[in-house]
Specification:
alpha+beta; 3-stranded mixed beta sheet; single chain
């Protein structure tokens, strides 16, 4: 295969080529590192790279592959490269948290997060750390003193955040897939901005070990991939309880990947392009949701229009999200002006606990809607990717208001803990990616992935790698 064909391949196809010994881990890594050397600095998608260490691991894996007669005994993703979001630890690598001061300090981690261990056990080669917004608080990556993370489809625009580095790297074929995390849209938003698949699983599906939880259980690890099947396969790797987890779900009897290939049964699918308290959705995104609704109807599903009102959730969710900064063991002076303002206005303990109780109560009301349907179809974000620096001259209060407007369809399902997936569906007239979001009932990732996979097959084919 040509190099371009390999980097445009799914992770599952690359896995197959390695198992067939038609491709070695070293050959594959050299292809990806060549692209990283060309494009990573322009995109600003990596906070740290250990290319020499990765090449050494790839050589060892290539030797093992050569000596292995039954390759089915190898770990499932033996020889594929990936990287960890720079909010999470990889033993022997620094963690910068998207902060210029901490990134320059290069404090090397002495342990690995559970997701890192699971990826390494599955045979992945961890090549470095992907960029994130400072402490993961913002839906774009423009930390003071650090390069912004740029959208591979148009370098003047953001790749999203806080998992924007991972999304940009996957979209630009610098990685076949990547883990990420989502506390208010931080997987789904970057997937939307970069034209890839972003899966936020149910609360408790993936362990946050060794940490306990993000405030209120709103955040979880998840997947950024080129295909739904790759997300299902990665979810199979990352899922599972770890002793001491405050939330957990039992693993399904059938692996997620195996469950997606049969067509889903006829479903009741609610859809909306009107979400209060937000202003009207951008026309290009409205048309994408309506087009997908027509496709789903042709597939045999019943489509039900609804107009949900998420207004009561906005204030308690904002307070819970804001409170995450109060746990940081860093001086406020090293933070960006936006994070300094968020920290200075963070809630006290009593306000936080009241907001948490409110969020849980409102979550019950949102979940009660799902008694009437199986899946909800809605926008991922309310308008297309923004330009880098678009809000840099606004006050923190104005910026927060803009953020809430943009990401409004995502946080409700962090509050409820439901699984949600963002799928790429097309482009704006000037070539920026667009997408939609599907949400399922709690713990129904298998059905969500099954529907998403068959929808993916029904969508018009599009160019998968940015032309830059």
């Amino acid at each position: 295969m040509k190099t371009e064909d390999l980097t445009d391949s799914s992770a599952l196809n690359l896995k197959y080529l390695i198992r067939k010994k038609e491709l070695s881990p070293l050959e594959l890594l050299e292809i990806y590192t060549s692209r990283i050397e060309k494009y990573a600095e322009t995109l600003g998608c990596f906070a740290y790279l250990d290319i020499e260490g990765a090449l050494a691991k790839a050589r060892r894996q290539t030797e093992i592959l050569g000596k292995t007669t039954d390759t089915s005994t190898l770990p499932p993703f033996f020889g594929l490269p990936t990287a960890i979001k720079d909010l999470y630890a990889v033993e022997g690598m620094p963690t910068g948290y998207g902060n210029a001061f901490l990134q320059a300090k290069k404090q090397v981690a002495t342990y690995s997060e559970e997701i890192t261990k699971k990826l390494e056990a599955a045979g992945f080669i961890i090549i470095g750390k992907t960029t994130t917004s400072e402490f993961g608080t913002l839906p774009y990556i423009e930390s003071p003193g650090l390069p912004p993370c740029r959208n591979p489809w148009n370098l003047e625009y953001t790749a999203g955040g806080s998992s924007g580095g991972a999304a940009a790297a996957v979209a630009a074929s610098l990685l076949p897939l990547a883990p990420a995390s989502d506390g208010g849209g931080s997987i789904r938003g970057p997937a939307f901005c970069c034209g890839i698949v972003g899966l936020k699983p149910s609360r408790g599906r993936i362990s946050n070990a060794p940490a306990g939880e993000y405030p209120g259980g709103i955040a979880t690890h998840g997947c950024l991939t080129r295909t739904v099947a790759d997300s299902a396969a990665l979810l199979d790797i990352l899922s599972g309880y770890v002793l001491g987890d405050p939330y957990w779900l039992p693993n399904p009897q059938t692996p997620f990947l195996d469950s997606i290939f049969s067509p889903p049964p006829p479903l009741k699918i609610a859809f909306t392009t009107s979400l209060l308290p937000s202003p009207p959705v951008h026309p290009s995104i409205k048309s994408q949701v309506e087009a997908v609704a027509r496709i789903l109807e042709r597939m045999g599903h019943q489509l039900i229009p609804i107009s949900p009102d998420f207004t009561p959730l906005v204030e308690p969710f904002k307070l819970i999200w804001q409170s995450s900064l109060t746990s940081l063991a860093v001086p406020p002076s090293i933070l960006s002006p936006m994070n300094q303002w968020l920290l200075a206005n963070a809630p006290d303990l009593g306000t936080y606990l009241r907001a948490l109780a409110q969020m849980h109560q409102i979550s019950r009301q949102i979940l009660s809607l799902f008694q009437n349907f199986d899946i909800l179809l809605l926008p991922t974000y309310l308008f297309p990717p923004i330009k880098i620096g678009a809000w840099s001259q606004k006050s923190p209060e104005e910026t927060l208001s803009e953020i809430i407007r943009w990401i409004n369809p995502c946080p409700p399902f962090n509050a409820t803990g439901q699984p949600a997936i963002s799928l790429p569906t097309g482009f704006t007239d000037d070539g920026l990616p667009l997408g939609i979001q599907l949400v399922a009932k709690p713990a129904h990732e298998a059905l969500l992935l099954q529907l998403a996979h068959h929808l993916e097959l029904s969508l018009p084919k599009k160019q998968r790698t940015p032309p830059f």
